[in-house]
Amino acid sequence: MSAPVDILAFGAHPDDIEIGCGGSLVLATDAGLTVAVADMSMGEMATRGTAEQRQRERDRAAELLGLRMRMTMSMPDTRIGSEPAHRDAVIGLIREFRPKIVLAPFFEDRHPDHSAAGRLVRESMFFAGVAKVGAGAPHRPQRLYHYMLHHPFEPSFVVDVSSVWERRMAAVRAYESQFGAADEARTEIGNSEFLNLLEARARFYGAMTGVRFGEPFYCRGPVAARALPGQGDDGGGAWRYRMFL
Question: Considering the domain boundaries, does residue 228 fall inside one?
Fold first, then answer.
């Protein structure tokens, strides 16, 4: 039995976590929280790079994020969620690590694996709390938050990642086979313009809340707060423009 963690983040492929919620994970580990990441596949069907390259890249990214553990679930790339055993595997990890918070891709996305991963985690999180389903002691995390990959959504909240932006992007750039210059076949994300898009999107969602860079998340239902948001916040030198009053 592994030691419990505060946050368990799921990604369909290596690099999904870095693209969608890397800054939030850096903030969490800097704050002393324990974070584990589960890559459902090794991204072995990607046009560029090999599974071995991506293994090295994700290990480097894990160091930059400060993760306690990173594991591969060995689901088939392009067929995530296609077998009942996939849900059993996610239930097993939730019960093993007993997180308070679970992160997963948004359940609508241009990449079918991302959508399937979001739905799979949501279903598994419910059944992980049902004693007669699967093996191990039941555990249902307190919260499930979905992070953005391709498909935009109206965020439930935005995390200010301005202070760790460079470290976050260093973790993204660790995947040189996907985002670096290469002589291999070009892909839509395999150039600097995609990295520029990530920055533009972070600036856009940051502008919604008056910070330089923001990571958007979606959850069903309200998020509890111990005080009015912004209460006691002197700004800390943050950029103050907000799209909304």
Answer: no
